[in-house]
Amino acid sequence: MANRTAPLATLAAVLAAAVTTVIWQSTPARAAGLSPFDIAGRGATVPFTEIEAEAAATNGTSTGTDRTYGTLSSEASGREAVTLDAAGEYVEFTLTKPANAVTFRYSVPDGRTASLDLRTGATLIATVPVTSRYAWYYGSYPFTNNPGDGRPHHFYDETRAMFGTTYPAGTRIRIQVSSTAQSPSFTIDLADFENVPGPIGKPSGAIDVVADHGADPTGATDSTARFQAAVDAGAASGRTVYVPPGNFTLYSHVIVDRVTLAGAGPWHTVLGGRHPTQRHLAAGIYGRYTGQGGPSRNVTVRDLAIIGDIQERVDSDQVNAFGGAMSDSVIDNVWMQHTKVGAWMDGPMDRFTIRNSRILDQTADGVNFHTGVTNSTVTNTFVRNTGDDALAMWAENTPNVGNSFTRNTVVAPILANNIVSYGGRDITISDNVVAETVTNGGGLHVANRYPGVTGPTAVAGTWTLARNTLIRAGNSDYNWNFGVGALWFWPDQGAITGATINVTDTDILDSSYAAIQWIGNQTTGLNLTDVTIAGAGTFALQAQAPATARFTNVRAGGIAQNPPVYNCVGSGLAITDGGGNSGWQAANPYCGPWPAPRWNNPTTAPTTTPPTGNLAAGRPATATGQADIYAPGNVTDGTANTYWESTNHAFPQSITVDLGQNRPVARLVLKLPPAAAWATRTQTLSVLGSTDNATWTTVKGSAGYTFDPASGNTVTVPLTASTRRYLRLTFTGNTGWPAGQLAEFEVYAS
């Protein structure tokens, strides 16, 4: 078959005659129950064995499988958990390997502090405290701890316990509600069992923070100054600084430079704490910022845990496990939990590595390479339950170059993406497994978004997205009326052009909404090779912006919607056929109201019939410009909650709807979003019509129309009856905003 570039509808006809053999890595049904640890050769190598509560013995109640935002199931691994709501109820796990410790993920109602028993048979192993202190957020970003703000989320937390002995494979370990529990209500998501090795001893010649500098291993007093003195002595003498077993309280940062800080292991050496009055200060290990003589260099931090006490998200607070700038430095085998961000690194800095680590239960990102971070990596690291992007790069004002995220396993970011790079040049994201995106993001994201990501900091060079597996990724953005793709591209602040983005050997399994999405401005230079799409809750492809791509061996099956493509940009989606493609083509792509997703049931859905009466419902809409994500397709999607906004400060601006054929038209109904969100404004506009999209006549002269919340922000425009296929509104003014704005463009024959 000859290679060619063609609009999607044309390409579908070309491929219809091709005979393709599809080899699936997973069927959609298998993908629906797939664990992120089932993918051989990809993701992090972890020291634990994970068992889902729904796969264990229990006398509790399943939460059911659901991905609706704001439910316990939606944030659970595997999208299901088990609730224990009576004394004596339990989840019982059978060990498959010897273990002496467990980490379990749970949820309790807000405001609760309680405990759960660990048992084997009649033997009580331990009573483990559980709390809602680090969970339960409300409202929209930046979120609060106030239930009155509604929209609760971030339900789960994690705790860990040592057994005191090693139990062999086959032992049954229960997590059980105590008979003395008051008003019990506990939800168990999973348990990670491991065999923790004994403490690592002090290296020869090392400085001991306890023996040599008087740090307090009981945590009763603040040891920040004593840690700093030990670290400074180690840097001056070239000696390792050893932190023996203990729980050390730090009220502020320890600044490291040219030093190795080594613990006895992340289950034995724990740093934590927060200043009792200055809440913006908390335990953390920081490099020197550029303005403070940084970046720090030749730092190694290994074999310890930083478990903080951060219970809210305040973006201005430096309450991260790691921060500042570190070049030629390594974080190795570190457990980061209950801080704001595991590692927020502010460059310029070069050759920084996080490896063999765990990042759990953050209020914001897991890792963010921010501003001029180069040749740096996160590898072989397990990340779960972050409050924002799990692994992120953000090239704000200074380019990020040559960075990579490789061989990581990333599960259940509560907000935003599993893995993302906002801008950057020559970026690699490879051999990762990502799962359970909850909302406002996808599994893998490439974007020109957020302040400072434009021009020299935008997406550039050669990007490698190779050998990644995306499981139940992508989900509903609660601000939009559509789902976010498992793999998605958003050139928000400028088109992605001039870069080469190679997506290879990638499996997109059981996507919650679309498998692949484009939104915003144009994306070019995209190559997809050997990509499997096995199951999608809505579409295989979701084109809300122009994109140019080459597809080779891109095979799709189990797509809920038929046709399997959402496309409101027409020929703006141009895909070059590299051969071997199947299952995602559509001679007549869909453009209309957003369908509800069909999770775990990837079968053909009936086509949607446009609402009776409104001739524009579901029809293609185009515009002379758009701001941010506010695309013209929003005006025909059947809901006033989404809207089109033209390019700002650029009147006149126009939006056009294609009715599909010449139809009699006599009335327009124009809407803005509901009254609760928008104030009164007057927009000046005219109405033009055409039968061929070439010759236009004025249907209604320019006039001012007032959109008033008191009347539902709705305006009716009567027209002289005529027959038109295309109708165009041209905006020349708006008293409420320097752009044309429209939520619904309805057309009626009477």
Automatic annotation (TrEMBL):
GO molecular function: lyase activity
Signal peptide residue numbers: 1-31
PROSITE patterns reported for this sequence: FA58C_3
Gene3D superfamilies attached to this UniProt entry: Galactose-binding domain-like, Single-stranded right-handed beta-helix, Pectin lyase-like
Domain F5/8 type C as annotated: residue spans: 603-750
Superkingdom of the organism of origin: Bacteria
The entry's keywords: Lyase, Signal
Protein name: Pectate lyase-like protein
Higher taxonomy: Bacteria, Bacillati, Actinomycetota, Actinomycetes, Micromonosporales
